């Protein structure tokens, strides 16, 4: 659905006002969240995934129900968005790095055999989830990166192809012309406020967005896609998909795949291909995966933390909330900074209990985070959020040149 300038301005202004005027008190109240995803699944098999896997759950569930392998089922789900040129978070059509090159990361864990595979920084091969599985099956290694991973893929029969769609290329051009600069202090630097250099009032935002709309028009971005492109430029997404699958005989596996942070510095690797951060599966306990700010999740080894929490008796919901609280602790609870962190965990225990938890309700107030579930009934459920309100993406406002 196209985003209107008015909707965009409302959410963008809310973010900059929260930062600009904050007195250090909490910007949003802690929320107990809803309990939708805290319940136990009634039956196995079950598949859970990020919301962008929803359309691919039926075929994967049918495969798993008829005795298919759990990792193969999870890979069927994540391949859907990888192959879809309109899904800009993974695979073909994913947002490129700052040089306009689509750079992909993925990993997988197979519970029954306790094996894992991973690839990072791969160009020109769209199904990196399958490539990570090929590393698992056909090497004595766990992780391959960059051109070595791509060459291994070609030797194994993967095709090299251009992954940059016209839509992603034009959005990258818009970013390049108006915002390109990842260098400078990060969110965890004492100097983080130095990154704020742009609009904070409604008038400044209006001016800024109008200018970007004009540049977007010059680049050739169609009118109905312009506000979305501007949002991607101002708030670079870290779109990703995770999927975990549990069979009737209680075998469990998981995988995660991503094009990573939009406009990233070439070579930047987030959490998704890191076993224990973007994905972790233990056949004795369960499986977990993440979408959101890779840098933050790396620092708490989120997926591993969650599985270990469940091993020590926590419910999937409590295990996920604990990982989120570790991120909060890393910022001493400072919501001026935490509003720029977006994190969602997808958690599946070996008995079929599951949870989707998120730091914030969603990216925008009208777009809540969701977990996709199929246990005989395919559905989307709102995640249980730690904080009320929506996150903003880092880095924040940059001046339009
Ligand atoms: N979570 C995806 C990334 O940060 O690369």
List strands and helices in order, with pairings.
Layout: H1 5-21, E1 46-50, H2 57-65, H3 70-83, E2 104-110, E3 115-122, H4 128-138, E4 143-145, H5 146-155, H6 166-178, H7 202-219, H8 223-234, E5 240-246, E6 252-258, E7 279-282, E8 286-292, H9 294-300, H10 302-311, H11 316-330, H12 335-338, E9 343-349, E10 354-358, E11 362-364, E12 367-368, E13 370-374, E14 378-382, E15 384-385
Parallel strand pairs: 3-4, 10-15
Antiparallel strand pairs: 1-5, 1-13, 2-3, 2-6, 5-6, 7-8, 8-9, 9-10, 11-12, 13-14
Helix pairs in contact: 1-7, 2-3, 6-7, 6-8, 7-8, 10-11
This protein binds glycine (GLY).
Description:
It is built from twelve helices and 15 strands. The chain has 401 residues and is α+β, with helices and mostly antiparallel strands. The strands form three sheets. The chain has an eight-stranded mixed sheet. A five-stranded mixed sheet has the order 7-8-9-10-15, with helices on one face. Strands 11-12 form a two-stranded antiparallel ribbon. 53% of the residues are buried. It has helices at 5-21, 57-65, 70-83, 128-138, 146-155, 166-178, 202-219, 223-234, 294-300, 302-311, 316-330, 335-338; strands at residues 46-50, 104-110, 115-122, 143-145, 240-246, 252-258, 279-282, 286-292, 343-349, 354-358, 362-364, 367-368, 370-374, 378-382, 384-385. It folds into two domains: 5-19 and 164-234, no CATH class; 26-163 and 237-385, 4-Layer Sandwich (Glutamine Phosphoribosylpyrophosphate, subunit 1, domain 1). Helix 7 (202-219) crosses helix 8 (223-234) and helix 10 crosses helix 11. The structure holds glycine.
């Amino acid at each position: 659905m196209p985003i209107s300038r008015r909707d965009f301005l409302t959410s963008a202004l809310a973010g900059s006002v929260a930062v600009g005027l904050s007195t250090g008190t909490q910007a949003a109240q802690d929320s107990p969240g809803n309990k939708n995803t805290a319940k136990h699944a009634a039956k196995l098999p079950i598949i859970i995934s990020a919301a962008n896997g929803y359309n691919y759950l039926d075929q994967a569930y049918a495969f798993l129900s008829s005795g298919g392998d759990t990792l193969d089922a999870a890979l069927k789900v994540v391949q859907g968005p990888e192959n879809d040129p309109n899904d800009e978070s993974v695979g073909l059509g994913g947002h490129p790095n700052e040089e306009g090159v689509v750079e992909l990361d993925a990993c997988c864990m197979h519970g029954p055999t306790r094996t894992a595979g991973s690839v990072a920084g791969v160009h020109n091969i769209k199904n990196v989830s399958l490539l990570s599985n090929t590393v698992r099956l056909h090497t004595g290694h766990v992780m391959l990166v960059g051109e070595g991973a791509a060459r291994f893929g070609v030797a194994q029969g993967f095709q090299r192809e251009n992954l940059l769609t016209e839509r992603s290329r034009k959005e990258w051009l818009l970013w390049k012309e108006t915002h390109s600069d990842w260098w400078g202090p990060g969110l965890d630097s004492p100097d983080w406020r130095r990154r704020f250099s742009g609009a904070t009032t409604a008038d400044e935002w209006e001016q800024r967005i109008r200018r970007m709309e004009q540049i977007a028009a010059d680049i050739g971005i169609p009118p109905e896609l312009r506000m979305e492109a501007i949002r991607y430029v101002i708030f670079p997404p870290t779109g990703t998909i995770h999927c975990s699958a549990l069979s009737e005989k209680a075998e469990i596996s998981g995988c995660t795949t991503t094009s990573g942070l939009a406009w990233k510095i070439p070579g930047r690797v987030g959490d998704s291909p890191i076993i224990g951060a973007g994905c972790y599966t233990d056949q004795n306990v369960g499986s977990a995966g993440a979408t959101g700010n890779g840098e933050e999740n790396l620092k708490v080894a989120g997926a591993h933390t969650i599985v270990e929490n469940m091993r020590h008796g926590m419910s999937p919901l409590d295990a996920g909330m604990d990982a989120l609280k570790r991120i909060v602790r890393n910022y001493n609870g400072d919501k001026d900074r935490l509003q720029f962190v977006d994190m969602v965990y997808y958690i599946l225990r070996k008995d079929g209990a599951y949870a989707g938890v998120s730091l914030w309700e969603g990216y925008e107030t009208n777009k809540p985070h969701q977990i996709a579930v199929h246990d005989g009934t395919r559905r989307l459920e709102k995640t249980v959020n730690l904080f009320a309100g929506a996150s903003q993406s880092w880095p924040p406002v940059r001046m339009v040149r």
